[in-house]
Design goal:
It is built from 14 helices and 12 strands. Mean pLDDT is 90; it is low at 1-8 and 326-343. The protein is an alpha/beta fold. The protein has a 6-stranded mixed β-sheet, with helices on both faces. Strands 5-4-3-6 form a 4-stranded parallel β-sheet, sandwiched between helices. This is Serine/threonine dehydratase.
């Protein structure tokens, strides 16, 4: 559902991505790039993890939402912004609107986790609940736009959102990393499309590869077929990648991405646990998909410098897909006075 912007808008350029980074500078973190020698040894290549799990609202979505809101004209801002989402885009848009001092109307399914509803409300977003199906979400959004005159900001299929997501890869290249390959997860395709454009402008020798769960592989199937194939009944632990690939995103990905590779949920869980154990950072399942792809296809990446965008860290720690010890397992070595916690 795209009913306010479109073809008359200028295309994304190298200059517009750099301008987007300057535009959103006060609203996002320049996230760090981390390394793990232990994971490098297992993977057989040098890995560079861009940590968007440390980003505002805990995900890369903060970039695209901020850019889209800040590019609105004064007149378009008057009635606020709106979207339907139960994920990271909901919180990202609510926060961007809060900083811009405009209202944000977020249509959320009634069965969305309460913690996510509270996150949106915490950023000043106005939550409108609906029945938990796509038709109800889209109708709810139409009603909100009609009643309040708010501008619809989609989560991924939107040029200004894609442009904002491209700033993540721009930071990698501006930091001087010369990568052979750069991988991102792919759901709706905003991050992958933005990353591919940034690489084509700033590091044309870097191959960009999408990483996708086998249980939600519409991007892979669309990429191979040459036309969009909507996802029906996705089934994967990577809940951030359940959406179908967007139309704008598909066109960009078709022209600028080298391949899209898939992995099983078991491989995703294994990679997720590896990052928890070796890097000591919190990531959500979607984040682990690119590492799982590298570990599954070691021969493709052997000896390379490989970048991985860790897309977010919003995970319910009580529902981790592997067993961990809790803080009750903290023990003290009385002789040394030191503490240690096992993961």
């Amino acid at each position: 559902m795209q009913f306010w912007y479109m073809e008359t808008r200028p295309n994304i350029s190298s200059q517009s991505i750099r301008e987007a980074r300057e535009r959103i500078d006060h609203m996002v973190h320049r996230t760090p790039v981390l390394h793990s020698s232990a994971i490098n040894e297992l993977a057989g290549c040098d890995l560079f993890f861009k940590c968007e799990n440390f980003q505002k609202v805990g995900a890369f979505k903060a970039r695209g939402a901020a850019n889209a809101v800040l590019k609105l004209s004064k007149k378009d801002r008057e009635n606020g912004v709106a979207t339907h989402s139960s994920g990271n885009h909901a919180a990202a848009l609510a926060r961007a609107a809060q900083v811009a001092k405009i209202p944000a109307y977020i249509v959320m399914p009634s069965n969305a986790p309460e913690v996510k509803k509270q996150a949106v409300k915490g950023y000043g977003g106005i939550v409108i609940e609906c029945e938990p199906n796509l038709q109800a979400r889209e109708q709810g959004l139409k009603d909100v736009v009609k009643e309040f005159g708010a501008i619809f900001i989609p989560p991924y299929d939107h040029l200004d959102v894609i442009e904002g997501q491209a700033t993540c890869a721009l930071e990698i290249f501006d930091a001087g990393y010369s990568l052979d390959t750069l991988l991102t997860p792919v759901g709706g395709g905003g991050l992958l499309a933005g990353t591919a454009l940034a690489a084509s402008f700033y590091s044309p020798n870097t191959k960009v590869i999408g990483a996708e769960p086998e249980g939600a592989d519409d991007a892979r199937r669309s990429f191979v077929a040459g036309y969009r194939i909507p996802m029906e009944k996705p089934n994967t632990i990577a809940d951030g990648l359940l959406t179908s690939l967007g139309e704008i995103n598909f066109n960009i990905i078709s022209n600028h991405v080298q391949d899209i590779l898939t992995v099983s949920d078991a491989q995703i869980i294994s990679a997720m646990r590896l990052i928890y154990e070796r890097m000591k950072i919190v990531i959500e399942p979607s984040c682990a998909v690119p590492l799982a792809v590298v570990l599954k296809n070691k021969s493709l990446f052997e000896g390379q410098k490989v970048g991985i965008i860790l897309s977010g860290g919003n995970v319910d720690l009580s529902k981790l897909p592997f067993k961990t010890r809790t803080f009750n397992s903290v023990s003290r070595n009385h002789s040394s006075g030191s503490y240690f916690v096992g993961l």
